[in-house]
Amino acid sequence: MDDHSRNRKILQVTLAGLALNLALSAFKCSAGYWGKSQAVLADGIHSLSDTVTDGALLVGMRFWNKPPDADHPYGHQRLETMVTIFIGLVLGAVGVRLLWNALSSLHIPSASEVAPGKIALLAALVSVGSKEWLYRWSLFWGKKTRSMALSANAWHHRSDALSSLPVVLAVGGTMIDPSWIFLDPLGAALVSLFILRASYTICKDPLAQLMDKGMPLEDLKTLERIVWDIPGILGLHKIRTRYLGSNSLMVDLHIEVNPEISVRQGHELASSVKFSLMDHFPSIVDVVVHVEPYEKRNEKEEPW
User: Fold this and answer.
1) pTM to 2 decimals?
2) Pairwise CA distance, residues 34 & 114, whole Å
3) Among the three residues 210, 235, 264, which one is the final residue of a domain in this structure?
4) Dihedral sign for Cα atoms in the order 167, 173, 177, 179
5) What average pLDDT score do residues 20-30 get?
């Protein structure tokens, strides 16, 4: 998938999520008000908060796809990493708030005198189904486009679906027996733990990338084999890799060649290394190859 198709698909999925979040928020707030359910009304307000991350994704796309310039010679892809972390932090804040509210309400009797109406239960069920579908669709395209930010936003959709589950239990249980309202804080506490775990999962890799984490060791060994298969390479060391974004990888390495060959021949070998690696790893956007005269070194020494 080329960059244009990738960006267009990310935009399409994000806009669909934004539209659904706005529609769901309006529906749940209305259903909570007319159905006399504070839980559904609060869930509608929670859905409205999802539009913040959708907006962050849309704004971020305008900048991380910009070409390199004088101030940013490596491009702007790191902004996608920062947007992903922002989404993860927002998700974590939602999880902490839900957990705090759930633990606090365990000590407060909350059975209502008037059972919620059927419209409130319908709104909660529609929320679970639609947000679960949106999660699966967004995660599929997040993986397909290799977009950390889109995948992170998918998990935010899943958090909204999960947070609606205790609402379904609370509303449904209260309609059967008002004393069953205690299911609400217990379910919310459990859901908040899943949300906090998702927040950690979302933030872990982007934070590692901001620390210039390199490619996995298994891929690094594959990279090494590709270079060694090129005729004329007599030595290889100082391999360094780092991610510029979820879909961009920089590689820096030193090769050793016969000291008697010409500068042109050394340059041609360096070009062979560069394009061989870029052909094998689509995520590699550039390779800097340092050409050195061959010196016999310890064969057991790792090349990175």
Assistant:
1) 0.65
2) 12
3) 210
4) negative
5) 84
